[in-house]
Amino acid sequence: MARLTRKSAKRAAPRPLKQGYGSEPGFPISLAMRAGDFVFTSAQGDHEFDPAKVVYDERGLVVSDGNSLPPRSVADETRSTLRNLEKALKQAGCTLDDVVDASVWLRDPRDFHQMNKAYGEFFTRNQPTRSIFRIDFMFDCRVEIKVTAYKPLVRRGRQ
Amino acid sequence: MARLTRKSAKRAAPRPLKQGYGSEPGFPISLAMRAGDFVFTSAQGDHEFDPAKVVYDERGLVVSDGNSLPPRSVADETRSTLRNLEKALKQAGCTLDDVVDASVWLRDPRDFHQMNKAYGEFFTRNQPTRSIFRIDFMFDCRVEIKVTAYKPLVRRGRQ
Amino acid sequence: MARLTRKSAKRAAPRPLKQGYGSEPGFPISLAMRAGDFVFTSAQGDHEFDPAKVVYDERGLVVSDGNSLPPRSVADETRSTLRNLEKALKQAGCTLDDVVDASVWLRDPRDFHQMNKAYGEFFTRNQPTRSIFRIDFMFDCRVEIKVTAYKPLVRRGRQ
After folding, report:
1. Which residues of C are less than 8 Å from A133 in CB distance?
2. Residue B18: which of C109, C135, C150 has the nearest Cβ?
3. Which chains touch B (3 or more CB pairs under 8 A)?
4. Could you report the per-residue pLDDT of A63-91, keeping only the tens digit for each?
5. Which of A133, B66, B77, C135 is most exposed, with the fewest beta carbons within 10 Å of its own?
6. What are phi and psi of B108, to 5 degrees?
7. pTM of the entire structure?
8. What angle do CA B109, B110, B112 make, to 5 degrees?
9. φ and ψ at A143, to 5 degrees?
10. If you measure CA to CA, which chain A residue comes closest to B153?
């Protein structure tokens, strides 16, 4: 991540830092976005999505999103999801230690304890605020997570 | 949008910039809110809401919110919704180009592809992060969107 | 809340301000988190949660979360929820007046008007943006709310 000195800031255009990182084929999104001192991520799960193979039930809920992932516990899904977020944050110059706020969604409330325990392995001090709800996913997964990180760029001369 | 020079900032009260814009009759909310370098919006859809005419089903879900809008595709709802957000952002001195993070909610997961395509028309580069879920709306609509924009006020003397 | 003067900022480590406040037993979260000029809260409701006593229905929804709270109106739940958020914000040096964005979730859309009225008692001017959805809670409550506040630390020499 480039350091922004007061001098280079003066020379640079006054346009402030806003930069997207990563993408997902077929989706008009970035996986992470730096905006000033903050980095946002898209909600992520441990899933694949194949539009040609997706199957809906009569209520329109996703029965299968066409992925070929093996069955796994919600704890493992949680860990994979957080590792996916870690990768996206890394592209934007952050780690999970910089996360300040998280949203967690579960398909089944009974998965709460398993998810909670796996989640806690990743956040052991100065823990982010969190919101958690049961939801119907667009994709075939049991958990999705989105985070906001705070990681100011170092600006010499201001500190 | 007023420019804040270092001089005027010195003269002005030290109170930092926080300002709501727009409102919706009967709702104690702003449609957009500037807080420092960021602008938040309320979640918006392409809907009207007439409390006197709203009809709920036996589960409490909204069958009709009393609006008189014509039937339209989810793509058109998406476009109208983004134009509504654009108007709210404009009041706060931003455009959709300044959006860094978005949340999208759909009533029916089968609307995903149509929504996704219409959404992509508005965000073609440096695309915001996004989260998307199936949800039950309080209102009679198929899609709602909320965005966060990043648009620092220009402060002379700092850049 | 400590004042950060330019002098002390120079002497202090360049690490920017990020600090969690409050916790909930058994949950790896903070109730409020300051990140620079912003303060985030966890979603809160007026509920207790006793993992040993929680009861789920056949769909996995929470029928009882083991709390011993008396029955009360959604208006009272809303007020208690906002007072809980107020306490969390206070630990981080903020009040409800500093809130710029809110998310509200309701179990039953028919509670909208009662919630809306009680909510409006707390936000009478420069009202935060808001998003509101029907959702299935992980806990036995009718309303949950999460807020983001904007309350810059005073930095002498910058204003």
Report:
1. 43, 105, 135-138
2. C150
3. A, C
4. 777 777 788 899 999 999 999 999 999 99
5. B66
6. -130, 115
7. 0.86
8. 70
9. -150, 140
10. A16
Residue C58 to residue A144: CA distance in whole angstroms: 22
The Cα–Cα gap between C125 and C145 comes to 19
* DSSP labels, B38-103: EEEE--EES----TTT-EE-TTS-EEE-S--PPP--HHHHHHHHHHHHHHHHHHTT--GGGEEEEE
Query: 């930095």: which residue's tokens?
Result: C155
The interface pTM score, or ipTM, of the predicted complex is: 0.84
Looking at residue C37, what DSSP letter applies?
T
**pLDDT above 90: residue B80:** yes
Place of tokens 């990681």: A151
Whether the CB of C100 is below 8 Å from some CB of chain B: the reply is: yes
Burial of A35 (0-12, 13-18, 19+ CB in 10 A): buried
Residues of chain A with Cβ-Cβ distance to C146 below 8 Å are: 129, 131
**DSSP string spanning C70-111?**
PP--HHHHHHHHHHHHHHHHHHTT--GGGEEEEEEEES-GGG
Among candidate residues A48, A110, A114, the one with its CA nearest the CA of residue A79: A114
**Closest among A159, B125, B77 to C12, alpha carbons compared:** A159
Contact state of B101 with A33 under an 8 Å Cβ cutoff: yes
Closest to B18 in 3D by CA, of A61, C128, C7, A152: C128
